[in-house]
Design goal:
mainly alpha; 6 helices; about 220 residues; Arp2/3 complex 21 kDa subunit ARPC3
Length: about 220
């Protein structure tokens, strides 16, 4: 005679274990799908920045120096970051930055400088969200005060990076430019570009509810 009291708990335990394994598999599939979506969104926005890359040759620049008065390509990178977080932003930045090399008249310096200048605009908000609003995620950046505070810090770090880089570039490749000239233009142009990099992508992503539609981070 078979003792059902022994078999039934064992059977229930096996079913429970099987269900748990299925949940883990579904979770892994979901995470993999989400990661794929992030990379795809980053690639699409990178492709858009690639599409407009040829136009960088027509942008007005500081004579003898090459720094652009306005850089529209980085706006796509920032939109990618706000939509999908650091992974999507990084994919867009790297792919879009590489695409600039054949078209930028001051390549490789122009594209490299653009990528370096944009990095703090992504890194600081990401760090702020991770440390202070990790449960909320990227949606925390829709709060204007929080967003502006982080972008102000990002701008300061951007200047700390770009001023020495531009001074070094000027000393080597444009020694006829004075230090005051380089400093003034580096501060003003990086300030304006930081404003566009922060403001325009924000208006594209949050008030339009685009973030809530994708909600990738």
């Amino acid at each position: 005679m078979v003792d059902r009291s022994v078999q039934e708990p064992s059977s229930m335990s096996e079913e429970s274990g099987s269900g748990h394994n299925q949940d883990l598999e579904l979770m892994e599939v979901s995470l993999g799908s989400e990661r794929t979506t992030r990379i795809a969104v980053g690639a699409i926005l990178a492709a858009l920045s690639v599409a407009v890359a040829p136009s960088v040759g027509f942008i007005a620049r500081v004579a003898g120096w090459g720094i652009a008065f306005f850089d529209h390509v980085s706006l796509f990178w920032m939109v990618a970051f706000l939509l999908g977080g650091p992974l999507v932003g990084s994919v867009s930045l790297v792919a879009g930055g590489i695409a600039l090399f054949p078209f930028d008249p001051f390549s490789p310096f122009g594209p490299v400088f653009t990528m370096i200048a944009t990095l703090p605009m992504m890194a600081v908000p990401w760090y702020g969200v991770k440390r202070l609003r990790s449960k909320v995620g990227g949606e925390a950046l829709c709060k204007p005060r929080f967003y502006v505070t982080l972008m102000a810090i990002a701008f300061i770090i951007r200047l700390l990076l770009m001023i020495p880089i531009n001074l070094a570039y000027g000393a080597i490749f444009a020694p006829f430019l004075s230090v005051d000239f380089i400093l003034n233009y580096a501060i003003v142009l990086n300030g304006l570009q930081s404003l566009w990099d922060a403001l325009i992508p924000y208006l594209v992503v949050y008030p339009t509810r685009l973030f809530r539609y994708f909600k990738l981070w």
